[in-house]
Amino acid sequence: MSLLRLESVTLYAPGASGDPIVSDISFEIETDETLALVGQSGAGKTSLALAIMGLWSGKIDGNIFFMDQEMTSLNETAYQELRGRSLALLMQDPLAAINPTLTIGWQLREVLRLRRGLSRQAARKESLGWLKKVGLTPASDLARAYLHQLSGGMAQRAALAIAMACQPRLLIADEPFSALDPLTAASQIDIFKQHRSEIGFSTLLITHNLHLAKELASKVIILKSGKIVEAGRVSSVFTAPSEDYTTQLLAAGLKPGSSK
C-alpha cells in the first residue's frame, strides 16, 4: 500500500492563466521508501513539495493521497493536524524553517511536546540529544542560541534535527545538506540514514545532486520543465538511462560532492 500517491497532478501559479508549473505528475511512495525527485532549478520540484504539504496557493488539478486520504480537498485545520506529526517538510532555506524570535532549544522542545506528547523534562533531555546528534555542541549552549547566532550550516543542521525529531510518516527533504561542507554533509547523511532506519519513515528527497540521490534513494524521478522525463529504480536509471536528458545530467553531476 502506498503512503503517498499523486495522480495526474498539475499545478498553476497563483493568479496565473498561462502554462502550468508542473504537468500531469503521477508517482507513489511506499512505507519505508525513499524517492528522489531530481531536476535542475525551476523544474518544479519544490512546487510539488508545497502542494503535498497543502502550502500551494495556486490551482491544483489532479489528486494527492496521503495514507489513502485525498489531500487537495482538506481545509487548513485538517492539514495542520498532519503537518509535523505525520507529514514534515525540511526546507532548503533554514531561514524559512526556523523561527528567528525563539531559541533553537525551545523550538525542538515544542516539537517533542506537541507532536510526540513528551513531558517538559523528557522533551528537554531529548532536544539536547538531537542537537548532539547533528553535531551542534555544546548542546546546552546551542539550545539557547537564536537563528542569527548560527552559521548557515549550523542552521541547516538545526532544521534537520527539528524535522527528524517529529518522527513523521513522510519527510519531504528539499536539498537537506546543500549548505554543508563535504565532511559535515557526509556525517549528517549518515545520521539521516541511521535515524531513517531506526524510525522507519519514508522520504521524498528533492535534489539536483545526483550523487545524493544515488546514495539515499531506491527510486528516482527525473523532472524537466515541470514534466517527468524518466522514472524507475535508481539502479536502472543511473546505470542505463533511456533519455538523453538523464544521460546529460549523469555526465554533469554524478560524482561525490557534486552540486550540479
Count of DSSP strands: 10
The major beta sheet can be summarized as:
6 strands, mixed
Instruction: List the uncertain runs.
Output: 255-260
Strand content: 15-25%
Superfamily at the CATH H level of the largest domain? P-loop containing nucleotide triphosphate hydrolases
**CATH class call of the largest domain:** Alpha Beta
Could you give the order of strands across the largest sheet? 6-7-8-3-9-10
Counting helices, strands and paired strands, the structural category is alpha/beta
In the CATH hierarchy, the architecture of the largest domain is 3-Layer(aba) Sandwich
The number of helical elements comes to 11
Q: What is the radius of gyration computed over CA atoms, rounded to a whole number of angstroms? A: 18 Å
In the CATH hierarchy, the third-tier topology of the largest domain is known as: Rossmann fold
Q: What is the count of distinct domains?
A: 2
Mean pLDDT: 89
Principal-axis shape equals globular
- What is the string of helix and strand elements? EEEHEEHEHHHHHEHEHEEHH
Distance between the termini: 34 Å
Helix content: 40-55%
Q: Can you give a write-up of this model?
A:
The protein is an alpha/beta fold. The chain folds into 2 domains: 95 residues, P-loop containing nucleotide triphosphate hydrolases (Rossmann fold, 3-Layer(aba) Sandwich); 105 residues, 3-Layer(aba) Sandwich (Rossmann fold). 40% of the residues lie in helices and 23% in strands. It has 11 helices and 10 strands. A 6-stranded mixed beta sheet has the order 6-7-8-3-9-10, sandwiched between helices. Strand 4 and strand 5 form a beta hairpin. Helix 4 packs across helix 5 and helix 4 runs parallel beside helix 7. The C terminus is likely disordered.
